[in-house]
Amino acid sequence: MRLHLRGCRPISPRRAHVIVVPLLLLLVVGAALTSLLPSPEDGVLGVLHRRANISRVIQPERSDSFTIIMQTFNRTDLLLKLLNHYQAVPHLHRLIIVWNNVAEPPPIKLWDSLGPHPVPVVFKEQSSNRMRNRLQPFAEIETDAVLMLDDDTLVSAPDISFAFSVWKQFSDQIVGFVPRKHVTTASGVYSYGSFELQDPDVGGGDRYSMVLVGAAFFHRRFLELFQTQPAEVHALLDETQNCDDIAMNFVVARELSALRRPSGVFVKPVDMRNLEKEASSGYVGMWHRAEHLLQRSHCLNRLARIYGGMPLHYSNIMISQFGFPNYGNHKSRS
User: Fold this and answer.
1) Mind telling me the catalytic residues?
2) Low-confidence ranges of the chain (pLDDT < 70)
């Protein structure tokens, strides 16, 4: 058997040029396209990881949600009722309960046993029963907006949602449901009261200079700012066990002093109830004390002396969901 080996036919230089040039072009184009592709560590998983990091940095929940702070003393039954109510409020990130019952443990086990709950609740046990305990910048506050509520006050979910939308437009002020005012008497002494308190200068009652924080939104930075106030302010609040809400209005007003803006914006509530009579303990709030209003007038004058002047400014703005009812119809306890 014979094998015939036949050699390859040589390629002419012209034909080789025709083949090599397109190959080189393909290689160049391929390299260019490859450089545009993500690196192995920056593939699909890398892109998803990067997007996750961006979402964590933006933290939309921080600007679109709020934290409730509620201080309580000797009203465990009311507290559980209110906690259940506020669990259904939209945009609520967390509830912080400032537990002032020094001799009694908070109902953590009872609350947990009745779970699960859509919104986490944190109990902050205090070593003393002080009114200003609620004005601490707790580490658990992860939102810019804080809604502070008294432990005998039930505010409807629509009222809270509406007030939160208003606060977003006035985040450098206190936005709440309970307005109060100060007036200067003929002797130059300040007096504290509500809309029924007539101003000697203008005669009208339809204006306010404070929004109480017992039912109000404010920015969490004011809690930090409150801690830096003069020691005389903290001593006054501990001495009277009162007036921390007035002091907070002074703090905000002083921050806005250059703009001469009022410390708060009044939102007219549609459904806000006081549940104090439903407490089985029979404990009643400090506003029942005979000296309550006199004590608050005393605080106004002491705070003005401490700060070297009166920083509060008046406002007649009322924001309402359903028209503008008469100011005189808005009467509450504090």
Assistant:
1) 245
2) 1-61, 195-205, 279-290, 323-334
The model's pTM: 0.76
Q: Is the distance from CB of 126 to CB of 140 less than 8 angstroms?
A: no
> How many residues are given for the chain?
334
Spell out the SS3 assignment of the chain. Answer: CCCCCCCCCCCCHHHHHHHHHHHHHHHHHHHHHHHHCCCHHHCHHHHHHHHHHHHHHHCHHHHCCEEEEEEECCCHHHHHHHHHHHCCCCCEEEEEEEECCCCCCCCHHHHHHCCCCCCCEEEEECCCCCHHHHHCCCCCCCCCEEEEEECCEEECHHHHHHHHHHHHHCCCCEEECCEEEEEECCCCCEEEECCCCCCCCCCCCCCECEECCCEEEEECHHHHHHHCCCHHHHHHHHHHCCCHHHHHHHHHHHHCHHHCCCCEEEECCCCEEECHHHCCCCCCCHHHCCCHHHHHHHHHHHHHHHHCCCCCCCECCEECCCCCCCHHHCCCCC
